[in-house]
Amino acid sequence: MTTTFADLGFRDVAGRLIVVECPLLERLGKAGISVPAGADAVLAYVYVDHEQGLSLFALAPASLASGAVFHDASFPVAQGQFVILRSGSIPPESRVLFPDDARALEGRYAEQIGQVERDHAPGPEVEAARKVESVDALRSPEYPDDVLAVLAADGLPQEGVWFRLEGLAGEGMLVGVLLNEPDADYPVHEGDLMALALAQADDGSPMLLTVPDLLISHPEG
């Protein structure tokens, strides 16, 4: 049974193998990477890159119709020739299949999967923030560690700003780096590390709120 990429959140796919419809196969073929006839998808291991977001380590061409994986044409992994797909390059309507033989495939590609896990394992602080499901509705679909928060201060208009979560700061608080410069004249700036408070909007939905007094540090230099 297939679903679409847009219907899946990062918790559905991160750390798993998927077969996903891939319109980039033609481009791979032009780059000299073997793409067999009948391939319309790729077998990929999905992971979260803290800065690059939800990413797919493409392992081999595949057929979405049959679920077959073309192991003999697996993508090169030597000398840094990785095929990495960022989630933003996958059209939302692309069909996704979870292979029935995932465990066997994990064994076959254990070396490549292990390399991804070693290279992109989050630190304990980032991992702790990533596990906070109560802010999932505020996360960027493409960048799961990035969240939308409200910046407020007396005499200034509230603004929606983006933070990259870096850890926790006690009960009901997270820590993040401000990713964009506020429009209003706030005494905080892009790159600042701030605490974010879990709160509720007027409609009862979750929100993250921060104020200049919750500034932790400015970027070094």
Which structural traits does this protein have?
single chain; 221 residues; alpha+beta; six-stranded antiparallel beta sheet; five-stranded mixed β-barrel; 12 strands; 16% helix; 34% strand
Characterization of this structure:
This protein has 221 residues and is α+β, with helices and mostly antiparallel strands. It has five helices and twelve strands. The protein has helices spanning 10-13, 25-30, 102-108, 110-120, 124-130; strands at residues 2-4, 17-21, 41-49, 53-62, 84-86, 95-97, 146-153, 156-168, 173-178, 193-200, 206-210, 215-217. The strands form two sheets. It has a six-stranded antiparallel beta sheet with strand order 1-6-2-3-4-5, with helices on one face. Strands 7-8-9-10-11 form a five-stranded mixed β-barrel. Strand 7 and strand 8 form a beta hairpin. The protein is elongated, with a radius of gyration of 20 Å.
